[in-house]
């Protein structure tokens, strides 16, 4: 049997070209991972991604070479293309609009009369009578999170090779405000007092790779996050076993994972990965009229619906923006999961999903493939026993 490092070296490229492809290799053992990495680096072959926690290495391989001996090697658990990930962008025909309201006096208590319609719709103010989310840790895997008066960032990481987790796109900041806006300038999120973490795995354009997301999930596991929000999907309906395995590892550690269904509706029959994975809570989008939005993806696997149309939230440079999409729906559920976990911290991810679906209210005229169990409702948290 040829040595694995020799096989990889024979196919490796030193820089991207029209003949190269990003490939991810998952090893069967840590010893195989370490040995292969050491031998390849001694030959001047440096991977674009190394993840010891999940025994995975990313290489640039030449398509003109045969990879079949790598795939079949006994030290290789899995090999797949490092496919593209993209944020679930603003829904079609729903342009992003920025606003900058007058900043009122800073408040230290929740004023339910100044809570956005969408936060009221999921009954977050009723849950606040019991908890504001402390001390739950919620990670937003996205384009990063910008500094903002209504956001308190407890930490974060950049898994794309950079050193900053601050947002250069706006999408992650908007998502974060929905989940965790603390209302200092008038905008509350679902869980205003959680510990918020910025995990930057998407770039300036809202794009990244599966390897960046897997790296982000591994960081969340190591740093003991309680909830992860994922408002993105794999490009062009492709599949990733390595992403599924990473999400399964996170769920096994009790981490609740919420994911947006996608914005290609209404004539869809599937939802995007990772929302389609059973370990995630897949979220569809509703509007002010309690209708499922036309743009919201349809298909088996949707768990709940939450507001996603015309949502005001935090934005870059201390501003606010109005956006629409399932990206906006998912953080409502992430925040709701955080509120529930703050009261019942020992609930596992599957149990949290079950409870949130049980509390949801079915919307008239929609099948489960459109709305899941119905519209998210969090009011019953105030009566949950500790």
From TrEMBL:
The active site is at residues 142, 171, 327. One of its GO terms (biological process) is proteolysis. It comes from the Bacteria. Residues 133-357 form the Peptidase S8/S53 domain. Pfam families: Peptidase_S8. Keywords: Hydrolase, Metal-binding, Protease, Serine protease. Signal peptide: none annotated. One of its GO terms (molecular function) is serine-type endopeptidase activity. Belongs to the peptidase S8 family. This is Peptidase S8/S53 domain-containing protein. It comes from Paenibacillus sp. BIHB 4019. The lineage of its organism: Bacteria, Bacillati, Bacillota, Bacilli, Bacillales.
């Amino acid at each position: 049997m040829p040595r694995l490092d020799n096989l990889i070296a024979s196919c490796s490229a030193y820089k991207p070209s029209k003949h190269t492809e990003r490939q991810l290799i998952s090893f069967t053992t840590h010893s195989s991972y370490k040995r292969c990495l050491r031998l390849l680096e001694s030959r001047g072959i440096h991977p674009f991604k190394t993840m010891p926690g999940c025994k995975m290495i990313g290489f640039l391989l030449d398509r003109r070479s045969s990879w079949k001996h790598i795939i079949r090697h006994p030290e290789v658990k899995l090999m797949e293309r490092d496919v593209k990930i993209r944020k679930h962008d603003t829904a079609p025909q729903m342009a992003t609009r920025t606003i900058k309201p007058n900043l009122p006096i800073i408040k230290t208590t929740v004023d339910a009369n100044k809570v956005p319609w969408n936060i009221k719709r999921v009954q977050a103010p009723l849950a606040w009578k019991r908890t504001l989310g402390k001390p739950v840790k919620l990670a937003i895997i996205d384009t990063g999170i910008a500094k903002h008066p209504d956001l308190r960032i407890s930490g974060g990481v950049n898994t794309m090779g950079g050193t900053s987790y601050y947002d250069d796109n706006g999408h992650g900041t908007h998502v974060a405000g929905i989940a965790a806006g603390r209302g200092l300038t008038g905008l509350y999120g679902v869980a205003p007092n959680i510990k918020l973490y910025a995990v930057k795995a998407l770039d300036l354009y809202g794009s990244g790779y599966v390897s960046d997301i897997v790296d982000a999930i591994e960081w969340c596991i190591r740093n003991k996050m309680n909830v992860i929000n994922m408002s993105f999907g794999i490009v062009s309906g492709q599949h990733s076993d390595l992403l599924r395995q990473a999400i399964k590892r996170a769920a096994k550690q009790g981490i609740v994972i919420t994911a947006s269904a996608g914005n290609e509706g209404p004539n869809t029959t599937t939802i995007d990965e990772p929302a389609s994975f059973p370990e995630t809570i897949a979220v569809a989008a509703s509007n002010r009229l309690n209708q499922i939005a036309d743009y919201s993806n349809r298909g088996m696997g949707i768990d709940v619906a939450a507001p996603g149309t015309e949502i005001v939230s935090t934005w870059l440079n201390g501003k606010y923006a109005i956006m629409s999409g399932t990206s906006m729906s998912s953080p409502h559920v992430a925040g709701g999961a955080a509120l529930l976990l703050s009261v019942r911290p020992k609930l596992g991810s599957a149990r949290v999903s079950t409870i949130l679906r049980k509390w949801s209210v079915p919307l008239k005229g929609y099948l489960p493939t459109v709305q899941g169990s119905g519209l998210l409702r969090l009011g019953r948290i105030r009566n949950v026993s500790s």
